[in-house]
Amino acid sequence: MEEFHDKSMKMAKLVVTDLNEFKTWKGKELPKGDWLVVTQEMIDDFAKATQDFQWIHVDVEKAEKHSPFKKPVAHGFLSLSLFSKMLGDLVTVKSVQMGVNYGLNKVRFPSPVVVDSRLRITGSIAEVEWYGETGLKITWNCTAEIENSEKPACVAEFISLMFE
User: HSE-up of 111 (CA within 13 Å, CB side)?
Assistant: First the structure.
């Protein structure tokens, strides 16, 4: 499979050849991901997609006046949904033809993400097991860190499938 990379895309920090090599990462810490800015446009687009227009997310003026954070905050599920992108930017398995989300365990949102915060993913690979003849089921221990914050935005066991 030929990989496409343009100059705006960052290369993965962990690149492995195939699923057998990937399995050797079980129990190991992943490299830290790159920072990603959570913009008001992202929050507004997420609100449209989920139909969750609570003012604390989308009404900038009201948030500045009435929110304890003095800015809009991202939906917790927006932070969680970024795990797929952030893991995809972090890890490449060259032989993989397809990956899908499988589920979540133990999701928590310890700290709000105010607009224009920077997030990055950290974590480890907790479990790796074969899934059918050509796939792996991976349980990732993931944390979405907020730059300059002691508490993370989101912590979860994220489960995905990869197929060769």
Answer: 17
Residues 115 and 72: beta-carbon distance below 8 Å: yes
Q: Kindly report the CATH number that applies to the domain delimited by 16-163.
A: 3.10.129.10
Tell me: the pLDDT tens digits for 116-163?
Answer: 999 999 999 999 999 999 999 999 999 999 999 999 999 999 999 999
Neighbours of 162 (CB within 10 A): 21
DSSP letter for 12, please. P
Rounded-to-integer distance, Cα 92 and Cα 17, Å: 8
Strands 154-163 and 98-108, by their bridges, are: antiparallel
| Closest by Cα among 161, 155, 162, 157 to 140 | 157
